[in-house]
Amino acid sequence: MNLSVRLIYDFPLTDGEPPTRLVFARPRQVWCATRAEEVVGAMEHASARAKAGAWVCGFVSYEAAPAFQPYYRVPPRFADFPLAWFAEFTAPAQTSPSDAGSSGHAIDRTSDVWPGSEERDRARMWWCGLAQPHRVVVEGIRQSIARGDVYQVNATGRLVFTGNDHPGQMYERLCRAQAARYSAWLHIGAWDILSVSPELFYARNGMRIVTRPMKGTSPRAPEETEDRAQRAYLEQSEKELAENLMIVDLLRNDLGQIAEPGSVRVDELFAIEAYPTVWQMTSTISGHLRPEANAVDIFRALFPCGSVTGAPKAAAMKAIAECERVPRGVYCGAIGLWTPDDREVWSVAIRTLVGRRDRATWVYGVGSGVTWDSRPAQEEAEVKLKAAVIDRAGLATLVELLETMRLEDGVWFLYDEHRARALTSARTLHIPLDPHVFDDALRRCRTKHPTGTWRVRVRVSLRGEVHCEASPWPNDPFTTSVVEAGHRGEPRIMAISSEPVDRRSLWLYHKTTDRRYYDRMRRACPGAFDVLLYNEDGEVTEGTFGNIAYEWDGVWYTPPVECGLLPGTLRSHLLRRQELRERVLHLSEVGQVTRWCWLNGLRGIIPVVVATWPTTRSETAVGEGKETLH
């Protein structure tokens, strides 16, 4: 078989037992359904092989739901991703799961290594998935609830990041970060699925079937007293309890379709489970299957799990199809296996990363249940909590757009430039930023601070919410003229970076809350005002928190954005006024520059000199040949 397949399951084979690591390779046969009409047939054939004594593993995508119930509505599926995939194996290689994710667990890092897998810089995640800003989605769902169309809808989106780490290493780190009971790494050709799900979809042992929906979230706290308080909040929150109970009722009804009459029972209601970043609420429902119920019947009754749809299920799925523009894929679907001794275990595929090796791009789904009591800020906070496992595992950091603005006596400096840049970045990164929301937030901030000079950090969340944080700013000398800047006292000293930037990096062109790279560059040059950056071709780009302008033959220039730099607001303003022109400057030309200026929308224009770093008292600044550094 040409398709490269390697599967690792860290699953309990019987509900209530600890997970066992199962490693599968070299499948005897594979069933791959890419159309809805193929799903049921693939599942029938695959589950029949388990009845005949084989191990069968696989997954079912959320968009496969109409194959089981034609009236379910789902977003359009990914064109190149299976709706369902199953593989038959003779037997697994089993190892102890007690140190899952450690180097002793048969994860092969020597084959199929992604390019650049030694890179350890953490990626940035950005948002895509909802057709409208999150606040609009939440309010629209609340209106549907008010009309009686639905009781609860699980609204989700996708976080995207690029990275070249080997999937096996990523899986190890995710397992350590999440400590989940239903973890799996599925390497299937070009695709890798890394799931660290804490949620059981269903487990069947003989004729007994158990489901354990998860609904209700509260953050963990580092201090013990506060941590206990967060748990107590979850135990007592009317909103969280109501959400959980709605899904319990839904699952009881779903199980009733395939269970013996009178056998469905709630074994445990509102249990609290601890995870590294969150407290989660679960409930356990069980039943005794009817003799004729098979794997397809179970999926027809239960899939997708009500915890990832809402209630009533069909109406909630209709709402989801209308507000989510990106398919869920395996996220919110199911990952599991059938064993030769008449057992099945399937997880709800949450906390799940999906990546393609030829693109080095990873997609992570996150969501929250919206009820009448929901508020956009609360739901956004819950989404961040659920994404924290990616940050905790060191894979990627959740970022927000950032604009740092100057407000002086009720007047915004460079308002149009900041607004245009934020909207452009939002479009590029699929952040649903409404221009009116941006304007309203800044209008409120200006009203609150009508006098004085203020530094205002404007953060745009991945769901389009705008937050302003104002702090007093000194009434410093301020100019936007390169001519006047020469009279602002002694020039500041800029060092030259010891390493280039990669102009292909998306994040050079967008200002975000993740400033770690720039902070690291400044820490490497203690005492310097800023650090001059350059790209892999030796072209000067910018400073770490300001753009650069330089005088050449009596004309003021600034490096083009294409060199790999942030399109600064003051830079854009001066270019539009034709006080600056664009020109590429190579490192070899730095010594020929007659004058330098540093540009920043908060601080204005400041004269600088450029020097290699570290320097001594006798070294000479580049561009200021007669001046020594002190």
UniProtKB/TrEMBL annotation:
Keywords (A to Z) from UniProt: Lyase
Domain Chorismate-utilising enzyme C-terminal, residue spans: 136-386
Example of a GO MF term: lyase activity
InterPro entries in UniProt: ADC_synth_comp_1, ADC_synthase, Aminotrans_IV, Aminotransferase-like, Anth_synth_I-like, BCAT-like_C, BCAT-like_N, Chorismate_C
Lyase listed as a keyword: yes
Origin superkingdom: Bacteria
Xref: Gene3D superfamilies: 3.30.470.10, Anthranilate synthase, D-amino Acid Aminotransferase, subunit A, domain 2
Pfam families to which the protein is assigned, alphabetical: Aminotran_4, Chorismate_bind
GO biological process: folic acid-containing compound biosynthetic process; L-tryptophan biosynthetic process
Lyase keyword on record: yes
Name of the featured protein: Para-aminobenzoate synthetase / 4-amino-4-deoxychorismate lyase
Organism: Alicyclobacillus vulcanalis
